[in-house]
Design goal:
497 residues; two-stranded antiparallel ribbon; 6 strands; 2% strand; DNA-binding; DNA-binding transcription factor activity; nucleus
């Protein structure tokens, strides 16, 4: 099907370069790497040294937890028995029994992550680093031209890579495995972008080897026990990058595994509860919200695609959405991300109410009523999305000094209609399932949604080929097969009028 679609003009082999510099007059500054008295982590370009595990915050425990109840009881008894040494001694012993590692009597729980503290890794896994001069070169480029991939994958802080590279290449304190893994993940996406654009900045460097090295180091980190088991913001960032890369590599099960680990981390750290973020500076709290909701959207999509219960239970989440950027050029990207959070919530509802073990036991009458209700909630979402698209029109973007690529916005979010009709198809497919019912027959609504989705695909594919180039077609075909064809599997062929 892909090969049979032709264009009226020659197809580019690489992604079309629509980038514009942030400023036309001011040259990009050289990153401030070479500070007096600092040297690279090792002379042979290898990351080395002892493992740095930052002191973790208290593990989040809800109001029903033993630790929370014990603290509340202790406070009550302490008020009534301040003059009784026996009671105070008993309270002290209770706190010690709760956990050997505690903050104000609340267990951190993090010393339970290893059977024996002495078995914690004493050194970092060996990771070869990219040449420092190459890093400086691409960071200068990044300062001048914002990364398209960072925008598309909701990584708002364009220069986070610069700070983490400074920490790794010229450390003033021990570097954590989470930092190393995150750095290589960010570098990986940036290099893939420059390769897709055939950017001349890569000339003279062995980019194939560099790309392979970044992939290898991302793999090493994401597959390590420390990243998978220790709740820390750096590990969450590393896993999030791993999830995205696994999806792009057509490995949904791996993406689910990494996403599940990251989900455990953010819940352990309390990112799902607004009260846990109140004491953070606004910028830090917003970064945590951004991480949380990014994972939420991926999880809900994978949950429905793989037919597994979500790691994010909506009844236990009250954290607010992240704030929309005050920068005009980036605000529409934020609005788009927030809009997809609501779609993720609807995807979760489709699975829970129609495909979970409990849902499949409901009567056909109940299931049809649920399908109608969910469809009524899903339809307005598409109109909401149309409003976001209108904010990113080229006329609007033409008036913005700092350009954040309306052309790429249309490219990365172009498949939105395909995703929408995929969800709608899955929703109506449930009408043919239930207790004692499982048939390949489909309803008219299901067929209509599937047909519209395929039409949207045929409409978008030439746009993708024109803007992304023929060299990047594999990624689209993989995405389409994984995220759409799997939803319409009962129809081996659909004749389009």
């Amino acid at each position: 099907m892909v090969k049979n679609i032709s264009l009226n003009e020659p197809e580019p082999t690489h992604m079309v370069d629509y980038r514009k510099p942030i400023t036309e007059n001011k040259p990009a500054e050289t990153p401030n790497f070479r500070q007096a008295g600092y040297s690279a982590s090792s002379s042979d370009g290898m990351a080395s040294g002892s493992v740095s595990t930052p002191a973790p915050p208290p593990a989040f425990e809800g109001d029903s937890s033993f630790a929370t109840q014990a603290v509340m009881a202790g406070e009550l008894i302490a008020k009534q028995g301040q003059k009784s040494n026996e009671i105070l001694d008993a309270l002290s012993s209770l706190k010690d029994l709760m956990n050997t590692s505690s903050i104000d009597g609340v267990s951190t729980g993090f010393d339970d992550l290893y059977f024996d503290p002495d078995e914690k890794p004493k050194s970092l896994p060996e990771m070869e680093l990219l040449p420092a001069q190459f890093i400086i070169t691409i960071l200068r480029k990044l300062k001048e031209y914002p990364s398209v991939h960072y925008l598309a994958y909701a990584m708002r802080d364009q220069m986070a890579l610069e700070r983490i590279c400074q920490a790794v290449y010229f450390p003033t304190e021990p570097v954590s495995l989470g930092q190393l893994t995150t750095m290589h993940g960010l570098l990986l996406f940036l290099l893939e972008e420059y390769i897709a654009l055939n950017d001349p900045i890569l000339n003279g460097w062995d980019i194939t080897a560099f790309l392979s090295l970044c992939q290898k180091n991302l793999h090493i980190g994401c597959q390590s026990y420390e990243i998978l088991a220790v709740p820390h913001v750096d590990n969450v960032k590393a896993l999030t990058l791993g999830v995205v890369f696994a999806q792009l590599s057509s490995k949904p099960l791996l993406a689910w595994t990494l996403c599940s680990a990251a989900a455990r981390h953010v819940f352990t750290l309390g990112y799902h509860r607004e009260r846990s973020l109140k004491s953070d500076p606004p910028k830090v709290a917003d970064e945590k919200r951004h991480l949380f909701w990014s994972l939420y959207g991926v999880d809900k999509n994978l949950s429905l695609t793989l037919g597994r219960a979500s790691n994010f239970q909506d009844f236990d989440i009250d954290t607010e959405y992240f704030s929309v950027s005050e920068t005009e050029g980036i605000a529409p990207w934020d609005h788009a991300s927030i809009t997809f959070i609501s779609l993720g919530r609807l995807q979760g509802m489709v699975y829970e109410q129609l495909y979970s073990a409990t849902a499949l036991k409901k009567s056909q009458a109940e299931r049809h009523a649920l399908i109608g209700n969910l469809d009524a909630q899903l339809r307005p979402w598409l109109e909401q999305w149309r409003e976001v698209q209108s904010q990113m029109s080229r006329d609007v973007m033409a008036a913005i000094d700092i350009a954040y690529y309306s052309e790429y916005f249309d490219l990365f979010f172009g498949p939105t209609d395909i995703i929408y009709y995929s969800v709608q198809t899955t929703l109506h497919r449930a009408a043919s399932m239930g207790e004692g019912v499982h048939t390949t027959e489909i309803t008219a609504a299901c067929f209509e949604a599937a047909t519209k989705g395929l039409h949207c695909h045929l409409k978008f594919l030439p746009v993708f080929k024109k803007k992304m180039g023929s060299n990047n077609m594999d990624s689209y075909v993989s995405w389409f097969v994984t995220h759409y064809v799997s939803q319409v599997f009962p129809f081996p062929s659909v004749d389009l009028p």
